[in-house]
């Protein structure tokens, strides 16, 4: 007989099914007399077993006339006839079956073990549930959208597949008081997730865990303790606009609005921008845009369409010291840089507005030069804005010079390249 | 013109007199509904056997055709009855099916909880059987052939010895009910078809 642990919960396999109105006077398993027909009973009915265990089952035939023989009976499992050497006639009306080293159930409704008469007709059936008890669920992670709700995700235990229907239940309670609550909205962001829509407290930690249960037992995850304010995320920034910066062919200006749901709490919020060329899949990410709602992308290719997205991390909300959780990216917004006959530089970084230096090497050196100039040359009104204006003027005058020299016939724009300067 | 067997026309009236247009439209509509639901019933049965596992899906699978309380399969003599009588039997079967389908759905919710499509199909089937049954009864009333006797109520949900039924018998029961659902829909479609102009005798 099968070895292995048996949790009392496994006996739930034998719990009576719910009411079935009218029903089938089930003669599959109940003797019926007087009709000349044979019926049988399989024992055990609907057993639950560990993978690798053994099973000894019997099929006892009842019928009219009495003394119906077990000779000629045979077994099938999931529609496949079992080798006769696994069966043995115990007595005139009982055929036994011995199965060893059982595999996991093929379907969650149970493997179909059927006892057949000699002519192939079905006399009785029993469903086998062969599997593993659940492992401890792991990797619980949770987030709160705008401090209004809590969604949690987890991973089933190491083996994953138990071959039995395993029920997962997310539980939560306030850390020092309160009763256990059970999450009710499952599968919101994947098969192992649950959503708690309301009635959550702030400034006090919750304890959260997941219980896994199947016919062979149960397991409980480690407890995750968190404060809702430490796992807040928000909506993507709305109203993202991308526009050209005058005639500068390597720059685009990006502006957005703080996510409205948390706009009064985003003093320390961080933003991140990513952009890519239209026909590329490679995004470039600009980090640490801090809590501004605008940024200038520099070092772009001229005459190129770019897609831009922005996301927000509500870091520091209500004084939380935790890292915060990034929102989803905003919908892509597209814009193109002005076209120029000179190839522009490659990718670049975001230039904050107001003329503050960026991280590129040329501009870093320029910053140093301007700083030196201010100190030694009394050029107090020098700034990056002035530098950008100079660049735009240079490009314009370069085009005009090329036209005058016949390199670019008037009326044609940027279709020929002049000599390198 | 001789009276057509199975026609719902007044036997005193020449059979060449067509039904009122709106009634004919109603018959067509109900017939189309029955045709569509027959297709859905096929899909339901396919999905059901797949989830119960073999041998349910095998062509050779032939469990005992055990009686289901409150509903039997169409009798071989059904085809020989007058069409209004056939439609009354169809309506009665369609009225008996919903609680059976609901019971199968509840049991499958335990056996196959991760099969939302099957559960949805079973719920839809119960609703659709009610709808088609009501449509057939309305047609019979419009044709003046409604059942004048007391309406037989579908059997109420009661506890029975079958509450001790094991999982395999429950699977067989569901297979039987889904099969009966398909049979009665197909029969209803055929019987309604005979009301249409050009329907064969």
Automatic annotation (TrEMBL), chain A:
Its main location: secreted. The keyword Ligase does not apply. One of its GO terms (cellular component) is receptor complex. Residues 331-362, 398-421 are annotated as: Disordered. Belongs to the type I cytokine receptor family. Type 3 subfamily. GO terms for biological process: cell surface receptor signaling pathway via STAT; cytokine-mediated signaling pathway; negative regulation of neuron apoptotic process; positive regulation of cell population proliferation. This is Cytokine receptor-like factor 1. PANTHER family: CYTOKINE RECEPTOR, CYTOKINE RECEPTOR-LIKE FACTOR 1. It is found in: Secreted. Residues 136-231, 236-340 form the Fibronectin type-III domain. The gene is CRLF1. PROSITE patterns: FN3. Keywords: Disulfide bond, Glycoprotein, Immunoglobulin domain, Phosphoprotein, Receptor, Repeat, Secreted, Signal. InterPro entries: FN3_dom (IPR003961), FN3_sf (IPR036116), Growth/epo_recpt_lig-bind (IPR015152), Ig-like_dom_sf (IPR036179), Ig-like_fold (IPR013783), Type-I_Cytokine_Rcpt (IPR050379). It comes from the Eukaryota.
Automatic annotation (TrEMBL), chain B:
The keyword Secreted applies. It comes from the Eukaryota. GO terms for molecular function: cytokine activity. GO terms for cellular component: extracellular region; extracellular space. It is found in: Secreted. Keywords: Cytokine, Secreted. GO terms for biological process: cell surface receptor signaling pathway via JAK-STAT; nervous system development; neuron development. Induces cardiac myocyte hypertrophy in vitro. Binds to and activates the ILST/gp130 receptor. PANTHER family: CARDIOTROPHIN-1 (PTHR21353:SF2), PTHR21353. Belongs to the IL-6 superfamily. This is Cardiotrophin-1. It comes from Pan troglodytes (Chimpanzee).
